[in-house]
Amino acid sequence: MKTKYEIATEAGELRQQLGYDNYSRVDIFNLVNSIEPLTLVFYSMGERISGMCLKSIDDVLIAINSSMTNGRQRFTMAHELYHYFYDDMDEIICLFDIGEQNPIERNANTFASYFLAPPVALSKLIKEIKQNKPTLQVSDVVKIEQFFGLSRQATLVRLIDEGELSQSDFANMQTGIISTALSLGYDDSLYRPLPISKSNMTYGRYIKLAEELLGRSLISDGKYEELLLDAFRSDIVYGIEEGGELID
């Protein structure tokens, strides 16, 4: 089991490697374009599995359960990045529970939290929020999770770990999540799954390889389209619909 300092250091180093400082919110799914071997798949996997990571010497596949909330999906993506960069196992299936698992899963969860919400940035935000207030309120928790793009559960777990909330706060703040965020003027997309049109989708290396094979005439147009349809990319095969593109 690694120390929290070791994991925080790894999270900070990877953020820097991928072009982020320790204060910015990470556009985590767009990292597929920064990690050359990575294929990212969104797919509905039921209620128990949050994601998986399959890797070889030249390729890595990260799959995210698209039926879970956007905040949970972001956490899962960061969790799987730990497995890719810092775990020796080649095949990892991650269950939904954020709580206590084996040491590697706990490391991956801690890494995901620190990667999305670096300690220095979280500490700064909490200091700004609290000022003369003794404790954090639910409105403050919403502000924190919206700033970093964390799910409510991941936010509460982290704030308890930082000594900012109690276990009773955890129980009290797990209800009315969407209505509270809306009443405070926030968008609710963080608390909802992907839209149906994007619930099954593939990005990254697989798509680039299909394009490369077609460009080098190593596969036919028909095979190219077959590969894309297998990857749920009918939008590429049949073109953009719903009003087309906007030029602004």
What does the model show?
With 248 residues, the chain is an alpha+beta fold. It has two domains: 4-198, no CATH class; 201-238, no CATH class. It has eleven helices and five strands; from the N terminus they run H-E-E-E-H-E-H-H-H-H-H-H-E-H-H-H. It has helices at residues 4-17, 70-86, 103-116, 119-130, 138-148, 152-161, 167-172, 177-183, 205-215, 221-230, 234-238; strands spanning 38-43, 49-55, 60-65, 91-95, 201-204. Strands 4-2-3-1-5 form a five-stranded mixed sheet. Strand 2 and strand 3 (60-65) form a beta hairpin. The longest helix is centred in the first third of the chain and has 17 residues, at 70-86. The radius of gyration is 20 Å and the shape is globular. The mean pLDDT is 92.
List the helices and strands and how they pair.
Blueprint: H1 4-17, E1 38-43, E2 49-55, E3 60-65, H2 70-86, E4 91-95, H3 103-116, H4 119-130, H5 138-148, H6 152-161, H7 167-172, H8 177-183, E5 201-204, H9 205-215, H10 221-230, H11 234-238
Parallel strand pairs: 1-3
Antiparallel strand pairs: 1-5, 2-3, 2-4
Gist of the model:
This protein is α+β, with helices and mostly antiparallel strands and 248 residues long. The protein is 47% helix and 11% strand.
